[in-house]
Write a structure and sequence with these properties.
The complex is a heterodimer.
Chain A lengths: L2 H37 L4 H15 L3 H11 L9 H27 L2 H9 L4 H31 L11 H12 L4 H32 L1
Chain B lengths: L1 H5 L7 H19 L5 H5 L7 H4 L3 H14 L5 H37 L3 H16 L2 H19 L2 H4 L3 H27 L2 H9 L4 H16 L1 H14 L11 H12 L2 H29 L4 H8 L3
Classes of the chains: A mainly alpha, B mainly alpha.
Chain lengths: ~210, ~300
C-alpha cells in the first residue's frame, strides 16, 4: 500500500470524525440544554431525574454507553447503523457535561433578573427564552468549548464499535502495514479539529470579558 | 418557579437529588429495554386470565429468556469474575495516578520556571499530549513496545505486556492533566508565602518542599480525586487492547451468556457506584478546604 492510499484512509477518517463531532455536538447541545434547564426547573421530579441523568452519565465510561447502544440494544429489538450508534452514544454521554455547564450558567444569573422578569409578568418559558438563555449562551461558550474539545477527542472511542473514524483508520493502517507511528499522525490530525475550536473559545472568552467591562 | 430557581422550598439537598435520580434511572433502564418484560411477568398469573390481559405464549417465552439472561448474576462465580476486573481497574488507576504525581509536580515546576529554555518545551509537551485522545496514546505506547523489545531484547515488553502499556499511557496523560492542576494550585497560593519562606533564609528547593508544595497538595486534593474518577473511566479503554479490567470482563461474560444488555447494565452500575463514592469523598474534602473550590470545579468539568 502506498502513501496515497494511506492519505485517503486518514482523510476519510478525519471527515468521519468531523461528522461524528458535529452531529454529536449539535444533538448533545440541544439535549444538554434541555436537561440543564430541567435541573433548575421548579418541577421537583424533573429536577431529580435531570440531576440523576447528569450524575449517572458522568460516572460511567463512554465505552459502556457505546457498547450498550451498539451491542446491547439490538437484543431489545432496537438496531442502529454504526455511525448513528456512535452519534447517539456520544450525544447521550456529552449531554450530561453540557447540562452541567448550562446549569452553572443559569444559576450564576442574579436573582434580581428573575424577580424583574416576574414583576413584568413573564411566564417561566418566556423568562427562559427572553431573559435567561440569551445571557447564558454568551457566558457558557468558553466552558462549552472545553466540553466539545473533549467530545472531539472522545470520538476516538467510537472506533471500538467500528465506526470508521480517524482512530479506526489509524488502527487499520498500523495493523495491516505495521506502521505504529501512524497513531502520532492521527493524534496530530485531531488537532486539526480541536485547535480552531480552542482558538475560537479563546477569542470568545476575550470578547465576553470586554463585553462585561463595558 | 422562583422556588425552582432559588431552590429554597425543596428540602432535599442537591447531592441527594442527584443520587435519587440516578438510582431511579438505573432502575428504569431494565424495564425500558425489555430486560425485565412487564408483560412477561404478568404471565405468572393464572392462564385463564391471559386472554383478558392480552397475553400470549410469546410473553411467557420472553420471561423465560429474561430469567436465563439474569441467571448468571445469581451465581457467586460471576461476581468474583467481575470483582477481579474491578480490582484490575482500581489497581491500574491507582498506580497511574501515584506515578503521575511526582512527574506532574516536576512538569508543573518546569512550566513555571523562569528559564525560557525549560518553560517552552514543557508547555509544548503538555499541550500536545493533552490534545491527544487517550486511546491514541494507549495504542501508540502499546505498538511501540514491540519495536522497543526488538531493539533491547527485553522480555518484559516482548510478552505484549498490555497492563504495562495501559499504565504508561494513562500515567503520561494523567501527568499532563495533573501538572496543570498543580500549576493552578501553586499559582493560587499567596505570593507572600514564597517571599516569607525566602526571607526566612530557605533556599528555593526548601521553600518548595516545606512551604509551597504541602499547601498546594492539600488544596488540589479534590481535583486530584476528580481526576482519579476520570482515570477509572479511562481504564476501560484498556479493554480495547485486551486489558482484563472490569469492562473487558463484562464483555467476556456477555459474549458467553449472550446477555449484553443485562451484563452491561450491571457493569455500568458498578462503575457508577465506585465513581459516585469517589466523587462524594472529593466533595467532602472540598467542603473542608473550601478555598480550593474554584480549581476543583474547573477541572471536573472536562469529560
Amino acid at each position: 500500500m502506498n502513501a496515497e492510499s494511506w492519505n485517503l484512509l486518514l482523510r476519510i477518517g478525519l471527515i468521519t470524525t468531523a461528522g461524528l463531532s458535529i452531529a454529536a455536538g449539535l444533538i448533545s447541545l440541544v439535549l444538554g440544554t434541555v436537561i440543564g434547564i430541567f435541573r433548575v426547573s421548579p418541577v421537583g421530579p424533573l429536577r431529580v431525574l435531570a440531576s440523576g441523568y447528569v450524575e449517572f452519565f458522568r460516572n460511567i465510561p463512554l465505552l459502556i454507553c457505546l457498547a450498550f447502544i451498539f451491542y446491547g440494544l439490538p437484543k431489545a429489538g432496537i438496531t442502529f447503523p454504526i455511525f448513528e450508534a456512535g452519534v447517539i452514544g456520544l450525544s447521550v454521554y456529552t449531554a450530561a457535561f453540557v447540562a452541567e455547564v448550562v446549569r452553572a450558567g443559569l444559576q450564576s444569573i442574579g436573582h434580581g433578573q428573575i424577580e424583574a422578569g416576574r414583576a413584568l409578568g413573564l411566564s417561566y418559558i418566556q423568562m427562559l427564552r427572553l431573559v435567561l438563555l440569551p445571557q447564558v449562551f454568551g457566558m457558557v461558550i468558553p466552558p462549552l468549548g472545553t466540553v466539545f474539545i473533549a467530545l472531539v477527542k472522545n470520538t476516538s472511542v467510537a472506533s471500538a464499535i467500528v465506526v470508521p473514524e480517524l482512530m479506526y483508520q489509524a488502527e487499520v493502517i498500523a495493523g495491516r502495514y505495521f506502521y505504529p507511528n501512524v497513531f502520532l499522525i492521527a493524534g496530530f490530525m485531531y488537532l486539526i479539529i480541536t485547535l480552531p475550536l480552542a482558538l475560537l473559545v479563546n477569542v470568545m472568552e476575550k470578547r465576553s470579558q470586554i463585553g462585561h467591562r463595558r | 418557579m422562583q422556588q425552582g430557581m432559588t431552590r429554597s422550598r425543596f428540602r432535599m439537598s442537591e447531592d441527594r437529588q442527584a443520587l435519587l435520580g440516578a438510582l431511579i434511572l438505573i432502575a428504569l433502564l431494565p424495564f425500558l429495554f425489555g430486560m425485565i418484560p412487564i408483560k412477561g411477568l404478568l404471565t405468572l398469573l393464572p392462564v385463564a386470565w391471559w386472554p383478558a390481559l392480552g397475553l400470549t405464549v410469546e410473553n411467557a417465552e420472553a420471561l423465560q429468556i429474561a430469567v436465563a439472561n439474569w441467571k448468571p448474576f445469581l451465581e457467586w462465580g460471576t461476581w468474583r469474575f467481575l470483582a477481579l476486573g474491578l480490582a484490575m481497574t482500581v489497581a491500574v488507576s491507582l498506580v497511574s495516578i501515584v506515578l503521575s504525581l511526582p512527574l506532574a509536580t516536576l512538569a508543573a515546576l518546569a512550566r513555571l520556571s523562569s528559564h525560557s529554555y525549560v518553560r517552552w518545551p514543557t508547555i509544548a509537551g503538555i499541550e500536545i499530549i493533552r490534545a491527544f485522545p487517550v486511546l491514541i496514546l494507549i495504542f501508540y505506547v502499546f505498538t511501540q513496545f514491540s519495536r522497543v523489545a526488538e531493539v533491547t531484547g527485553s522480555s518484559l515488553l516482548k510478552s505484549n505486556n498490555v497492563t504495562l502499556a495501559v499504565i504508561i499511557a494513562l500515567t503520561l496523560y494523567t501527568t499532563v492533566v495533573n501538572a496543570e492542576t498543580i500549576r493552578a494550585g501553586i499559582l493560587s497560593l499567596d505570593k507572600g508565602q514564597t517571599e516569607a519562606a525566602r526571607s526566612l533564609g530557605l533556599s528555593y528547593a526548601q521553600a518548595l518542599r516545606l512551604v509551597i508544595l504541602p499547601q498546594t497538595f492539600r488544596r488540589i486534593l479534590p481535583p486530584l480525586i476528580a481526576q482519579f474518577v476520570t482515570l477509572v473511566k479511562d481504564t476501560s479503554l484498556g479493554a480495547i487492547i485486551g486489558l482484563l479490567e472490569l469492562y473487558h470482563r463484562g464483555q467476556i461474560l456477555y459474549q458467553y451468556y449472550r446477555n449484553p444488555l443485562e451484563t452491561l447494565w450491571v457493569v455500568a452500575v458498578i462503575y457508577f457506584l465506585v465513581n459516585y463514592a469517589l466523587g462524594q469523598s472529593a466533595q467532602r474534602i472540598e467542603r473542608r478546604f473550601s478555598g480550593s473550590r474554584r480549581i476543583a470545579s474547573q477541572v471536573s468539568l472536562e469529560p
